[in-house]
Every structure is written in C-alpha cells, then in structure tokens.
Amino acid sequence: MKISRQSGLERRDLLEMEDMLRRNLVDFFSFSGHALYFPTESAPATPKLVPQERRLLLPLARQNRLLGVFMARGVRLREIRPLLPVLPAVAALCLDNLALVKATRTDALTSLATEEAFFADIQQQALRVRAFLDDPAATGNQSAPLHSLCFGLVLLRLCNGKETALRVGYASENALLRKLAQACAADLPEGVQAARVGRHELALVLPVGGRMACHELARAALDRMETVRLPDPLTGRSIRPVLCAGHALYPQDMRGAEMRLPMFEQARRLMSLAGLAADVARDGMAGTGKSRVMPFARILHEGGVVLQSLQGACLRVSLGRRAKAAEGMRFAVYSPEKGRETGRACKGEIVLLQVEESGAVAEILHVADAANMPAPGDGLTLLDPASAPASQPKTHIVLRASDCAHGAKGESLCGYGDFLKRSGFEMERSARFTLVLVRLDRAGSRACAGAFRLWRSLVSGSGGLGGGVAPFGGRYGDNSLILFHSGATPEDVAPVYRRLCECLAQRGLGAAAGVAGYPFLRYTKAETRDCALKALEYALLLPEPKAGVCNSLALNISADRLYSLGDVFGAVEEYKLALLADKTNVMALNSLGVCMAALGRRQDARRHFLAALKRGADGPLAGQTCYNLGAICQSLGERRAAGHYYRRCIAVVPNHSFAHIRLGQMCEERRRPGQAKRFYERAAALEDAQPGNLCPARRLLAGLAVHGRQQGEARELLREALLRNPDDAAAMLALARLYLNGNEDPSLAEMLARRSAALRDCPEAWQTLARAMRVLGRDAEAQLAEARAERLP
C-alpha cells in the first residue's frame, strides 16, 4: 500500500505514538526501558550498541530525514548482536506502520483528523474532566482553576455546501472544503484539535476553557473561513461560503442521566448538542447573510421559535428536552421584525404544557393584542419564573373559584396548564402544602392514566391526606404526574408514594416519586416545584421503592450536581442549605470544605473539614476528610499537622495514592530524597494496580532523577507519565526543559511548552516557551511570551 504525502511523519508524531513504536519494536527484540532523543547534531547514522551499558541507539530515519533516535535500555547482547545489520529495515518498517496509522486518523480531503479519531480525543477529554471531579486532589498542591473543569466542542458548518455542489460540481465543492479546512486550522491555539466530522462540517475541541473561550474560538475560525472564495469555473464569479457555528461544554451542557452513559455515547451526545446549536444559528441567520455563533446554553433563552398554531390557544414550538426545556417554563413571544434587541413590546406570553424530545406544545397565557396573535416564525425568550409578565396584557386569563372547585375531588387527570391554575390558586390559600412529582419509566397517556387511578385509590384509602381541598393532579410531560396535597406535610404523604411505587413495580412499571413540602427552609411557594425536582433526583438513586423527600440529602445531591457542572458558588449555597436542614450531614460539611478550598478560602475549608471529621470520625468519609485536612494544612505551611493527617488517612485508606504523594513531597521539601522516592514508588505501584487512577507519581520520580543527574531515567519516567495522562501539563513542561538542556530539537520543546501553557496558564510554561523560541531565533515572539509570564501571578 502506498502511503500518501499527507501521512508523512513528523517528530511530534513520534512523541504522540511513542507507545505504539515501543510495542512494534519489542516484537523484534526485548528491552527493559526506552527513551526518545531528538539530537540536532552528532546523531548516529547506523544502529549503535553500547555493550557496557546494555543500551542500543537506533536511528529513526524516513525519506532520507532523521526524525529521532530510539534508545533501548536493558537489551540482551546475545539477542541484539545478530540483528544489528537488519535493524535499519526494522526501524523503517515500524515507521511505515506509524505512517499508516496516521493516515487512518487523517481525512484525505482536508488533512484534518477523521471523525473517529476526533471522538476518541473527546472521550479522553471527558475522562480527564471526570477524573478530576471524582477526585479533586488529583491536581496536586494547587486547586484547579474552574475553567479546567470542562472542555468545549465547536461545530462549524458550511450551510450552502449542497447548493455549491449542484451549482458548480462536486470537485469544486471539494476544493472549497479543502480551502475552508486550511483557513480553519491556520491559526488555532496549541492543544486545539480540528477534524472533519461530516460532509460539510468541521469540529474543534478546546481542552480547557469556558463558554467565552469557545465563542471566541468559533468566531475567529469563522472570520478566517469567511475570507475564502472559490471562482465559478463557468462564470468566473466568486462563490462565497455561508457558515454558522454552534458550541457546547462538557459537562455543563449534559443532562444528569447522560452523565451515566458510557463515554462512547457521551462524546456523540455532546456533538449532537453542538449540532443543535449550529441548527439554531443557521435558522437565526436566515436572510441576513452574516455568519452566526450560537452557544447551546443560549438556545433555551433566546433560540426558540413558534413552529405551528394549534387548536385551543396552543402552539407547537421548537424547544424540546434536547434543549433542556421543561414543562411549566414561560416564554415571551416576539415577532421576527420586532426582535428582542429592539426593546419593543412582545406579542404575549406562553407556558410549556407537554415537552417532547425535539419540540413542545405550549399554551398561550395572554396576548398583548388580540388582533396580533403569536404565529409561526415568532421568536421566544425565556422568562424568569419569579418575573412579572413580559408585557401588560390586554387580554387576561381570569381564574375563577369554580375552576378550582372543578376536579377538587381529584376525579380527573388534567393537563399541566389546568394544574398550574388550580395549584396556583390553592397555594395562595394554603399555609402548608406538599407537591409531588412521579416519574414513570414508560411514557404515554395510558401509563399516566393507570398510575393516576392507582394513586387516587391509595389516597382515598388513606383518608384524603390533609384538610381542605382534596388532593388533585395533572400531567407533567409524557411520563410524569404532578400532584398537590393541601394542608399535608411530606411525612404524611411519603408512605403513600412508597406504596404507589411498589404497586406500580408489581405491575411492571418502574416509578420514582419526589416529595417536597412548604414551608421548607427559605424556599418560596413558587420554588416548591424545584424542590420536588431535587427530591426526584434523589429518589432515582434510592433502592426500591424510589420515593424521596426533599431533605438534607436531596439538597446534598443537588449541590454535587452543581459542583460537577462547574458552578462552585451555586454548590456552596446548596451545601449550606443542606446543613441548615441537617447540621449532622457529614457529606455536606466535607463537600463544602472542598468548595471553599477551590475558591481559595483555606481557613474556612479547614473549619468545615474539622467539623466533618469530628462528627464522622468513624464514618466512610473519614479517610478522605483526613486527606483534605492534610492538604489544607500543607497549603497553610503547617507541615507537622499535614503529615499527621496524611498518615491518619493512609491508616484508614491504605491505597490512597495521593496521601503517599503528599508525604513524599514533604520529605522532598525537607531534603530527604530517599524517603520521598519510597513514597512516590508506593504511589506509582498503586496507580498500576488501579487502572484509570491518574496520579503524578512518575513525574515526581522524574524530578528526583533530574536532581540526581539521571537525565535518561527522568526522560523515561516523564514519557511514561504522559502515556498514562496525555494532559499532564507539568510533565510536558519538564520534558520540554530536558530537551532544551540536552541541546535537542527546540521545535519539540516549543510544542510541549505551548501545550503545557494552554493546559495550565503559569509563568514557568511561558518562560520555557520563550527560551525555546530564542533558540529557534524568534526573538520577537520570545519577548511576547516573556511579557505574558510577567503578567501572571
């Protein structure tokens, strides 16, 4: 098979596929360790064996160009000597294999990554984020910046690709795609990977950064791509690309249930969210001729559109569950010519009644002008639940007492709009009530109706539950019920819903119930539905029967979700409410301490950790709490206390690798490298015994090797660290320094330092980058990097 020029190997390819190269060579001869060198001069032209050290230097040359030197350590002399004449052919064969692998990962038309290679990279990025969220201690001494708790995916779409192909032919369309790909990849930040993910779509993955960084990346790529022109082969007129972009963040834009899916599924779900955002951007730019970028998170706020007018003052809108729409959300309606930006009066207000996967049915609550009703094409803007109507309506929906009396005995299952009217009226009259959400595993009106009949019989058998108006309920989406109990407490109704879930399970229909009461803490009546949703989220984690009350544990789980989405401040407020509901909640105390540490409030963090340890000294969280206390004490300079808590952590959890690492760092600070090495080696052994457990043990061992002037061993350890964690910014930086100190290829040192700076914006990375640039003779760029380093704390 002939290898194309596009798959030609570069030195950086050897770094990225080093493990594959090692596995290929070990099929021909055995060795105990290895390292890659990139000498700029005095490189061996043929394989060189050093018998005294049992080392082999194997040049890696391709197309008459030296790419690097593979150093194999611990070779067997009797085995390697007969192979010396054929080793150049072996090396060439291995390099051909690497080139073939690179070719399979590279799109032939655009020279960007293929879709499958891109998804594999997304999965690795997702694993990195989840690894930190599962163990925040993995960042070492410093708390991770909030922007590193996520990564972004940008989808760039050529909207007129099919039209171009029909107009000027597929060859010209391919030429346009090739030019667009070149413009897209021309000036990408280090660490950003570009790929072709569809016939007319390109994608970018940003390893770290928030929505603003994604938006700026998408905008800059579109600006470069918009300058591309392709002459029509017949008329000579320039063909202008019509472009749009959408972007999504992981894990912020993922739903809770999606986070439990395999990474294969999560990567493709994230791509679909970015695609949905690009769809909305394309629809919003119709007729304007200007490219548009749409974040997925803004679709719900300003990306909705009225699709169809239905009977009974109802509308079909474009917002569905994919856009995170939910029943009960209220939207203002604007005509297209009177957009949101003009500040002019809206046409009316609607509420979502039934949300489907890609759309929803909404009811018109009021209109500003009866002669100007909401119509297809009108835009939607999300209203705050506690806000007043978007405009003063001229046509009001008036709720009469007789409307609430209808169905007061709970004999019929009403729609969500009717339920809102009834419950709103009853909430105003009730000083105490309970709201319940029941979620069924099966969607459909028959399932909901059967569950409602069973609920009605159970409530009747319990004496009605509460005084005043009898309980009533309504539909809440395709697979849920929402139920109201006036004058009842959650403790009164919880047994009924446990029994309801048991009975439904016996009939083959799984169910979960979230129970929330008013008054509860500082939540308002309007926020009771949100509390019921939190209780439902808690109930889904319980064993059968899945009936959960909005209590301290439910708030704790809600706060955990906020923290996993990067909303640390929201998580802090939620953990505080969990403690307000139950001051003995050790999980909330420990998690609150983690949040305070992430925000840099170390004294507050220590106070919360000490309280958690005092109340749960024998509990399952004692080991992690001791570790957290040790980390806080170490950051405050209290080394003796830190050592005490780390050892106490190891006594409770012997396989806590990061506690060993912290003790090793403390030994290193006291200039005891022998003891530090033993702790690091234990941590490395624990990492090997627990696949997926990423820790910096090998990187720290490499640091000890550098101080001991064992450069070869340090290089090998750093490469092993990067093979286990390709996003280890500190290992990249250390390896870049080794290349510079060893007078090796400075372009590889520049690449590693640039990637390190992209992952962790610190002065050391920019200083190393500036040093590499000066070696390359790029003094002006080096000065910019040095200025960047000086601006950082």
TrEMBL record:
**Which Pfam families would you find in this protein's record?**
TPR_8
Protein name, please?
A: Diguanylate cyclase domain-containing protein
